[in-house]
Amino acid sequence: MADEKKSGEKEQQPKSRKRIILVAMMLVGIMGAAAGAYLTLGSSDADESKIAEPAIIVDPLFVKVGPMTVNLQGKSTDRLLYTSVMLRVSDDTTRNFLTTYMPDINNRMLVLLSQKSAEQLKAAEGKSQVADEILLALSEPFSDPQPELSIVGVYFQDFIVQ
């Protein structure tokens, strides 16, 4: 009988060990699930203010003006400027408006450029100054009423002085 009790105890020990291991694994699993839920659900409220919206990348919009050939001022009457310009704009409204008024834009640019001399245009400062003057000339209203235009830059595509 003593042997039977010992063998019965031996059989109970593996069952109780299995139960302890099973309970421990369940507790670890529950704690892991609780920690995961806390980190994903609980911290999302706190982190919403920290999360910045992704930057929206907008493709640049351009309006092509030209090409045009202009007689330049100076001692010699055979000095010419051949140029084409790209206007960088911020929105479709400006692009559509400038496309509609392209004859006016060409006229303003021809008048402006024909007042320049070859010496003024050959220097880098002269080209930069002309770009600023074009921007200023295009900021004057074309019509009344007119939407607010957003021209951000003037870029020369061709610029040949002869």
From TrEMBL:
Family: Belongs to the FliL family.
Residues spanning the membrane: 20-41
Biological role: Controls the rotational direction of flagella during chemotaxis.
Entries under PANTHER family matching the protein: FLAGELLAR PROTEIN FLIL
Membrane topology: Single-pass membrane protein
Annotated GO CC locations: bacterial-type flagellum basal body; plasma membrane
InterPro entries hit by this protein: FliL
Primary location recorded for the protein, binned into one broad class: membrane
Cellular localization per UniProt: Cell inner membrane; Cell membrane
Alphabetically ordered keywords of this record: Cell inner membrane, Cell membrane, Cell projection, Chemotaxis, Cilium, Flagellar rotation, Flagellum, Membrane, Transmembrane, Transmembrane helix
Name of this protein: Flagellar protein FliL
Gene Ontology BP terms: bacterial-type flagellum-dependent swarming motility; chemotaxis
Organism: Halioglobus japonicus
